[in-house]
TrEMBL record:
One GO BP: carbohydrate metabolic process
Compositional bias segments (type: Low complexity): 178-188
GO molecular function, one term: hydrolase activity, hydrolyzing O-glycosyl compounds
Bilayer-crossing regions: 286-308
Record keywords: Glycosidase, Hydrolase, Membrane, Signal, Transmembrane, Transmembrane helix
Biased composition (Polar residues): 168-177
The protein's name: Maltase glucoamylase
Domain Glycoside hydrolase family 31 TIM barrel: 589-718, 760-865
Domain Glycosyl hydrolase family 31 C-terminal: 876-958
Source organism per UniProt: Anopheles coluzzii (African malaria mosquito)
Family assignment from sequence similarity: Belongs to the glycosyl hydrolase 31 family.
């Protein structure tokens, strides 16, 4: 209550005449309406003033100082009391009259405002009419205490005799969703209004009482701001003139007629601080999103920049080569952009940016040149291609430091295709990628002791149609599948033996990379072409005789075993066979007393000339094995030293010969074939033999590179010890008739056949023959002569702590019968059939019968051998070929090393394991005739569990393409 106010005025007295003013600016007297504090809504009493007085008295005990209702509270109370029947001025008129919210400055339009604010008694409109359009412009009023409003309403209902329905706290509005504007209560001018919405002015007890019976929900506490007001041509927002509606955010009476209005008001219900927090949350998420987006953009831009620079650095050379100058990653691409060859060039260099070579270091052939900080230079250029479908590129490293060895490595994993070539490895691997070879000089050696066999070619072929050819003058070191992984590494490195004679000041590595549409086309294009140049009719007859007739190697593991009688008796046994042709009788180096005598041993061969004449009359050809080695025990050694015909010690006088070991000779010198005086001397020695004994041809045993003295020096500098063989063949071309050589690094001039390395008389030795034939055929040796049937030597049964050269072992005794039969079955299809042990030595009818059958098969095979030997002379292709040469697109043919083809007309699949009578056979595309049962078989498929009895060998003849079943 107001201090000093009386409460004995009746509640229902009319207040229209109280406090009214006739002029603007005079305050209007306001009535004091006390709060009601009662929880009994339905209780009615006759004397409403008494209950009201009790409520007011109760209220005054709580707070006597601020017991004055504000205008908003009074309006709200009158709205509940008068409800539907009360008539009086509207709230808008009273607010304009009393200037409750905003003080409006007077101006020229003051009269209009005063006139507009006058209070005129009018009839109240119906609730529906008054509520129409009021929802959008609803007024936010400050809230009254719930108990006070209930007391006031109860008193009014009892006075009028009608009951006002009080909606529960969960209702959205009063009187069917309408909003009532009550009369404006008046208070004495000297009294201070109380703001009940201030949290600080209420006690905890009030909060508890309010929570018991809530009059409004949160929606009723929403804020419905007033519309903007335009005054003096200036637009004012609601918060500029309606302070109560801003402060009192808990007293909005709204409508529920519209769902859209409900949603809009729900959004307005949210306190400003919550909205701010939501905005802050959204801002935080937005900032995180923007930050993440910024980081992604930075990453993408950086990645694009790096890739762009990588692409720029990985410059394309000659359309097919991609080379990254800094990392030196290398890729060779096909026409469709696929990778044919990948690797890393210059692995011995640190990763650093190269520079373009200086003008003085450029070549005049248009090569691209890069230099790595005075360490090495790389030249890249196009090379001459052998065919229109083949592209070749040259690479040359020049080291600028003595201890820098340029090294290029290429991926040889099966994912990059199958690699072949180089030569025969120590592990007899036909596929180069399966071998493990530490870095070492690429020179010939004894396969039992060294990494490479007796024949090498600096040629490596990939099944994807890529080939690498290394220059002959490069001091080449090769490693395969070492610590660097599945890689074939080529290195230019000088050493103290193999490449001691430096061709350049510092090491160099030079090679050519070629690519073709497929492996077969590429290989055919790169192989040496015609071999007919310089071939005589006699040479051609020797080739045919070697194909048609066997080579009979006189068995003699010791010097005393080889005698004139032994030769005669051996030839008699050959004639006694009756089913094999007579051929070449090969006499090993023991025909002389000591190696290098170049004279017949008169004690063991007193009448060899007569014996040889007999052999000629019977149809044999006699061949002697010679070698460029001269034993220190030979009578010719003294003469050769005196005439300086031998290889001499490095950095010494030429009169001091360099010594080595050769076969059974523990100390021997080597004839210096680079000396112009040595060739006539050797030719003279051999001429003396021919004057005594008519020799048809010679087999030259060069040994290997490791049979050359360690500290050798020749009259003319050799690139490597293997070059000695090339010199010998060139110098004696046309002087000697050579039908076979033991070692080579280039194709010997026909009719010379390359002999396979000696193999052990065992099943493992038998299994090594086909991979060796295939490997040598791929690297360009078309005419191959395998070892004798049954093997060249036999290993001791005890375990060897160190493997020695095969020269240290004796010739094998008679091999196991099954091993001999399977070996003979394989040899029947090879270009040259070579014997030491005769089938008759077994004295077994089974062996004899099988040998006769194989002799008949040999006669059917001879036409194919002669046909493809002519093709080999024309195109340089091998006679014995891998299956992929029949179909280079069939991946099944790439890894097969226990089958081979004779040209493209026959496939042979011998049994190579002890006790087996079945095997797996693969036939390439086409129609094939089975050699055992003469049935026709379709190609491009495997034949599983193919039965091959001991007396049979599996072979298949190619039929014409139009053959039908």
């Amino acid at each position: 209550m107001h201090k000093g106010a009386t409460t004995d005025e009746p509640h229902g007295t009319s207040r229209q005449g109280h406090g009214r003013q006739s002029k603007a600016g005079v305050p209007i007297e306001k009535e004091n309406i006390p709060f009601v504090d009662s929880d009994h809504e339905d209780e009615c009493f006759d004397d409403g003033g008494d209950r009201l007085a009790a409520a007011i008295s109760s209220r005054s005990t709580v707070d006597q100082e601020y017991d004055i209702m504000t205008e908003s509270q009074e309006n709200l109370a009158r709205a509940y009391i008068t409800g539907r029947n009360a008539a009086g001025p509207s709230l808008a008129e009273r607010r304009m009259q009393e200037k409750l919210t905003v003080s409006i400055d007077t101006s020229s339009n003051d009269g209009d405002l005063i006139e507009e604010a006058r209070d005129k008694a009018t009839e109240l409109k119906l609730i529906d009419e008054r509520a129409r359009g009021l929802r959008r412009n609803s007024i936010s009023l400050p809230s009254l205490n719930v108990n006070e409003l209930e007391v006031l309403r109860s008193a009014h209902e009892c006075e009028n005799g009608s009951k006002i329905s009080v909606m529960e706290s969960g209702s959205d509005s009063l009187s069917d969703g309408t909003t009532v504007t009550p009369e404006t209560p008046t208070t004495p001018a000297n009294l201070k209004p109380m703001l009940q919405f201030n949290d600080d002015s209420s006690s905890d007890e009030d909060d508890k009482r309010r929570s018991k019976n809530l009059f409004r929900t949160k929606r009723r506490s929403s804020i419905a701001p007033l519309p903007a007001l335009r005054l003096n041509d200036k637009e004012m927002m609601s918060n500029d003139f309606d302070t109560h509606s801003v402060l009192s955010n808990q007293a909005s009476i709204t409508s529920v007629n519209s769902l859209a209005s409900l949603l809009k008001e729900k959004m307005q219900n949210v306190p400003a601080i919550i909205r701010k927090k939501k905005r802050e949350t959204k801002d935080y998420k937005l900032r995180v999103f923007v930050g993440m987006l910024f980081l992604i953009i930075v990453f993408l831009v950086g990645y694009a920049y790096v890739m762009y620079n990588q692409k720029l650095l990985a410059k394309s050379y000659f359309e097919s080569i991609k080379f990254h100058k800094k990392t030196r990653n290398f890729r060779l691409l096909d026409g469709k952009g696929g990778e044919l060859l990948t690797g890393v060039l210059g692995t011995s260099l640190n990763i650093e940016q190269p520079y373009n070579c200086l003008p003085k270091d450029l070549k005049d052939d248009g090569s691209v040149c890069y230099e790595w900080n005075s360490k090495a230079r790389l030249y890249m250029n196009l090379a001459k291609s052998p065919g229109p479908d083949i592209k070749c590129y040259s690479f040359q490293w020049e080291s600028l430091l003595a201890d820098l060895y340029p090294t290029d490595c290429f991926d040889v994993s099966e994912e990059r295709g199958f690699w072949y070539g180089g030569g025969l490895t120590k592990g007899i691997e036909y596929i180069l990628g399966k071998a493990t070879i530490p870095a070492g000089p690429f020179v010939t050696g004894d396969i039992n002791m060294h990494q490479w066999g007796n024949a090498l070619k600096r040629y490596f072929l990939n099944s994807r149609g890529v080939a690498i050819q290394v220059d002959e003058k490069t001091p080449l070191y090769v490693s395969v599948n070492t610590d660097s992984g599945k890689r074939l590494c080529l290195q230019g490195k000088n050493d103290k033996f193999a490449f001691v004679n430096q061709q350049t000041r510092f090491p160099e590595l030079k090679y050519t990379v070629c690519s073709g549409p497929d492996m077969k086309t590429l290989h055919n294009g790169l192989m040496q072409k015609s071999l007919w140049d310089g071939l005589t009719e006699r040479d051609n007859d020797v080739i045919k005789s070697l194909l048609r007739e066997p080579v009979w190697q006189i068995p003699a593991s010791k010097q005393e075993d080889l005698t004139e009688v032994a030769i005669y008796n051996y030839t008699e046994s050959i004639i006694a066979l009756g089913y094999l042709r007579l051929g070449h009788v090969l006499v090993n180096e023991f025909w002389q007393r000591t190696i290098g005598d170049f004279r017949l041993d008169s004690e063991r061969f007193p009448t060899l000339d007569e014996t040889v004449n007999i052999l000629h009359r019977r149809g044999f050809r006699v061949s002697f094995m010679i070698q460029p080695f001269i034993s220190t025990e030979s009578s010719n050694f003294r003469e050769a030293v005196a005439k300086k015909l031998l290889i001499f010690e490095r950095e010494s006088e030429r009169s001091i010969p360099a010594l080595t070991r050769y076969k059974s000779t523990t100390s021997a010198g080597v004839l210096d074939v680079t000396n112009n005086a040595s060739i006539p001397w050797l030719a003279e020695q051999l001429k003396k033999i021919s004057e005594t004994v008519e020799i048809d041809s010679y087999f030259v045993d060069f040994g290997t590179a490791f049979n050359i003295p360690r500290y050798y020096q020749c009259s003319q500098t050799l690139v490597n010890p293997d070059e000695y063989k090339n010199y010998f063949m060139e110098r004696f071309e046309g002087t000697l008739s050579i039908f076979g050589v033991s070692s080579a690094i280039s194709v010997p001039r026909p009719p010379a056949f390359l002999s396979l390395p000696p193999v052990n008389s065992s099943w493992s030795g038998l299994q090594s023959i086909i991979p060796t034939m295939l490997s040598y055929g791929i690297i360009g040796f078309p005419f191959l002569m395998p070892g004798p049937v049954g093997g060249d030597f036999v290993l001791p049964t005890q375990q060897l702590k160190k493997m020695y050269s095969y020269y240290s072992f004796e010739l094998p005794p008679l091999p196991d019968k099954e091993l001999y039969i399977r070996w003979l079955q394989l040899a029947t299809f090879l270009p040259v059939l070579r014997f030491t042990h005769l089938p008759s030595e077994y004295r077994d009818e089974t062996v004899t019968v099988i040998a006769k059958e194989l002799a008949d098969i040999r006669q059917r095979v001879l036409p194919l051998l002669e046909r493809f030997s002519s093709i080999a002379m024309d195109e340089g292709l091998p006679i014995i070929r891998p299956l992929w040469m029949l179909d280079s697109t069939d991946v099944n043919c790439f890894s097969i090393d226990d089958e081979f083809s004779i040209g493209d007309g026959m496939i042979v699949a011998p049994v190579l394991k002890k006790g087996e009578t079945v095997r797996e056979v693969y036939l390439p595309q086409g129609v094939w005739k089975d050699g055992i049962d003469e049935s026709l078989r379709k190609g491009s498929r495997w034949i599983h569990n193919y039965h091959v009895p001991q007396n049979k060998v599996a072979y298949f003849i190619k039929m014409p393409d139009n053959t039908r079943f």
